[in-house]
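Meet today's protein:

…
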Amino acid sequence: MRLRLRPLSRGLLALALAFQCLVAGAAPPETGAPWPGLTLSDQHDKVVSLAGDKLQVVLFTAERKPGDWAQDVVEKAYKDAVLAGRLALVFDISRMPSLVTTMFALPGFRARPFPILLARDAGPVAFLPRQEAAVTLLTFDAGKLAAIDYAKNESALEQLLAQRLATPTPNSEE
């Protein structure tokens, strides 16, 4: 069964969503604006703050598939950038059922050799821009937001990361 909304209903729904974003203070960041910072726990429950001039790129998604290929791209070539604090991964898992989070998602995240910041509540990441089925790339220069990009596939993410990170260093084999 497919739900059909009349044009007036769609307009009211859009207005209600816009009002909710304004009330929640979820205005999207603008390029040139200082990064307000973000503090979340990673997959090992370690509190991490994203702030400072060292941070160059934040990858953000609220969906599983883009999150999966973002992790793969980072592990393949940018793990060192994450460990150095130049690149950060932020996943909004607030809509994930807690059983799924505990039984499946966290063990998968914990298997990664780099921190992944997890928003278990949507509030702290409500201001981050997003597109369906995409990874958002927020690029910073001296603590200010320089660019917002969206990668719709693994190849696009690889290209954007290569452009956005000042000195991408492929991981060495251990």
User: Anything to note?
Assistant: The chain has one domain: 29-164.
